[in-house]
Fold Lipoprotein.
Amino acid sequence: MNKNKVITLGLAIALSIGAVACTKKTETPKTEPKQEQSTTTNDNTYSEYYTKHYNEYLSGLNNYMGYETVESRNKMFEGKEYPGNETYLTDVKKAYTDSKDKIQSFVDALKKNTDITDEKDKKDNEALIAEGEKLIAELDTRIKKLGEVPKDAYTKTKDEFMNMVNDATTATKDFKNDFNVRLKEMNTRFDINTKDKK
């Protein structure tokens, strides 16, 4: 029995020493790499955050490029039947409203990211938010103008009506915005492929 007690006591001491030794070994290396990892994570966090929200809100906006000019609008209907003036106006309003809503959601998401540690990321984020807010206000103005197109204009020819809609969606005087330029810079920097995204 004494022999069993000695063996049990010996095993208990060996396990205790082993557990303490293992604990001390794992604690020391964890603190140093953890600091290195957090720096790397912080550097990548904004890129990942931006990319996630860009893909979520803006990646499909290229589908609305057809509404930018009279020429691009005419191209949309090459080989297709024109839906009629009223439907066309409804489609243009929907495209502008959807674009505005998506840009607003994207800007709101950028505003929520307050943990930006890199100064360049922080500066670019703030500039993108400012340009986005200017663009949202401009889109509101254009949507309002589209709502003011009179119903009696529906009787105009396709070309006359499309020109009228184009006039309503032309940028207001002195409007300058770099939202798309900044998006392009950020997408290049973070290697986001914007081609063929639907």
